[in-house]
């Protein structure tokens, strides 16, 4: 029996999310996301300032300057998260992501988890964790699988 040398679908889309993260303008953590249905990529996103606004690399990081720990007070960040940008991209172009899979370089935060739940995403595959226990609890309660 011949072994297929290609990456699994999960590895393939996680690698794409990793490449997407290379466009991030965040000074603290580069995150990438890809939304997929039936092995077809529908939208991607990376973390950074809203379009047309100055990036953190240009104006600095408020959270870093104020010593805010990772995983806390995300609302003080001028940037959007990768998951948010991917969901917004799909909405902007009228693409339904109900029952989609989300591939992300990091576990979503609780704010993103709520958006993921309401967008209809059914499964999340992550490359690494994130210190937000509430996000894990919300996703678990909603019946959304998170796989590492």
Automatic annotation (TrEMBL):
<protein>
    <submittedName>
        <fullName>Cytidine deaminase</fullName>
    </submittedName>
</protein>
<keyword id="KW-0378">Hydrolase</keyword>
<dbReference type="InterPro" id="IPR016193">
    <property type="entry name" value="Cytidine_deaminase-like"/>
</dbReference>
<feature type="binding site">
    <location>
        <position position="112"/>
    </location>
    <ligand>
        <name>Zn(2+)</name>
    </ligand>
</feature>
<feature type="active site" description="Proton donor">
    <location>
        <position position="83"/>
    </location>
</feature>
<feature type="domain" description="CMP/dCMP-type deaminase">
    <location>
        <begin position="8"/>
        <end position="142"/>
    </location>
</feature>
<dbReference type="GO" id="GO:0006220">
    <property type="term" value="P:pyrimidine nucleotide metabolic process"/>
</dbReference>
<dbReference type="InterPro" id="IPR015517">
    <property type="entry name" value="dCMP_deaminase-rel"/>
</dbReference>
<keyword id="KW-0862">Zinc</keyword>
<dbReference type="GO" id="GO:0005737">
    <property type="term" value="C:cytoplasm"/>
</dbReference>
<feature type="binding site">
    <location>
        <position position="81"/>
    </location>
    <ligand>
        <name>Zn(2+)</name>
    </ligand>
</feature>
<dbReference type="InterPro" id="IPR016192">
    <property type="entry name" value="APOBEC/CMP_deaminase_Zn-bd"/>
</dbReference>
<dbReference type="Pfam" id="PF00383">
    <property type="entry name" value="dCMP_cyt_deam_1"/>
</dbReference>
<dbReference type="InterPro" id="IPR016473">
    <property type="entry name" value="dCMP_deaminase"/>
</dbReference>
<feature type="binding site">
    <location>
        <position position="109"/>
    </location>
    <ligand>
        <name>Zn(2+)</name>
    </ligand>
</feature>
<dbReference type="GO" id="GO:0004132">
    <property type="term" value="F:dCMP deaminase activity"/>
</dbReference>
<comment type="similarity">
    <text>Belongs to the cytidine and deoxycytidylate deaminase family.</text>
</comment>
<dbReference type="InterPro" id="IPR035105">
    <property type="entry name" value="Deoxycytidylate_deaminase_dom"/>
</dbReference>
<dbReference type="GO" id="GO:0008270">
    <property type="term" value="F:zinc ion binding"/>
</dbReference>
<dbReference type="InterPro" id="IPR002125">
    <property type="entry name" value="CMP_dCMP_dom"/>
</dbReference>
<keyword id="KW-0479">Metal-binding</keyword>
């Amino acid at each position: 029996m011949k072994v297929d040398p290609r990456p699994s679908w999960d590895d393939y889309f996680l690698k794409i999310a990793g490449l997407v993260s290379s466009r991030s303008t965040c000074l603290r953590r580069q995150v990438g996301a890809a939304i997929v249905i039936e092995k077809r990529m529908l939208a991607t996103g990376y973390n950074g300032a809203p379009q047309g606004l100055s990036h953190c690399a240009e104006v600095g990081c408020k959270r870093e300057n104020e010593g805010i720990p990772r995983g806390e007070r995300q609302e003080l960040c001028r940037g959007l998260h990768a998951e948010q940008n991917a969901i917004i991209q799909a909405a902007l172009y009228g693409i339904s992501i109900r029952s989609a899979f989300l591939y992300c370089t990091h576990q979503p935060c609780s704010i993103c988890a709520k958006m993921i739940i309401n967008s209809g995403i059914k499964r999340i595959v992550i490359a690494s964790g994130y210190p937000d226990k509430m996000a894990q609890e919300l996703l678990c309660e909603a019946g959304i699988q998170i796989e590492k």
